[in-house]
Every structure is written in structure tokens, then in C-alpha cells.
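Q: What would this chain look like folded?
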Amino acid sequence: MKIIIGKGGMGDRTAQACREQKALHCVFPAGCAVLAATQIEEIEGVEWIELGMPEALWICRVKEFGPLIVSIDTKGENLFENKKAIYNKRKDGIVERISQKVRFIK
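A: My prediction, written as C-alpha cells:
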């Protein structure tokens, strides 16, 4: 398996596994769930069903599946975590400026 398609960001262990296995973790952009469902031709199998339907690993045959965002690449670079760090740095200064004008924000 070289591509995992998930519904949210993943952590360090997934990034490490992607790097070691030369695999990708991808997500559908928000609002595309119906499109994704229409592109599944057949469910070929399911693993770890004991985790529940949303957490199980579904093996699907698809055609023209996408659009997808690569959230973790084969080098283990995590798009969401990298961007989160940048946004958090920017946020501090913005919150400080807003807080000077709007007193109820802490």
C-alpha cells in the first residue's frame, strides 16, 4: 500500500511510516465527500473493522479519484503540521493587535 487517504491530519508516527515506506497520506479537500463517494467503483475489502466503520481501513477500487491534497509526502514532510507552525507564529501578532482594540479577547 503506497497511498492512504484519510479525513484529517496525522502525526509523527504516520510521517515516519510514510518516509520509511515511501508512501503518501492524502486527504480530500473539505466539501468533497460526495464526490469521493461517487468515484468508488467497488469495496474490495476492509481491515480492522473492530475499530468501527469510520476508523477501519477500507480497500477500494476507484477510477479518477480526486482531487486529493498530499498531507504527508514520501519524505515525511507533514503539510498540515508545517503550516500550523507558520500560522501560529502569525496568529500571535494578529491577536495582540486585535486585543488592543477589542478588550474582551484574552
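The CA atoms of residues 18 and 34 lie 27 Å apart.
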